[in-house]
Amino acid sequence: MMSGGNYTPIDGDKVTGSVPAVSDSPGHVAVKFADSDLQTFPPSGPHGKISGGSGPPRDADDTFSKSASDSNESQSSGWFQVFSIAYYKPYFDVDTSDVLERIKDSLFPFKGSFYEKTVDNPDLYGPFWICSTLIFVAATIGTFVTYVTHKLQKKEWNYDINLVTWSAGLFYGYVTVVPLVLYIILKYFSAPSGLVQLFCLYGYSLFIFIPALCLSIVPLELFRWIIAGVAGFMSASFVALNLRNHIRSAGERWFLIVAGIFLLQVALAMVLKLYLFTFSV
Question: What's the pTM value of the predicted model, to 2 decimals?
Answer without folding.
Answer: 0.68
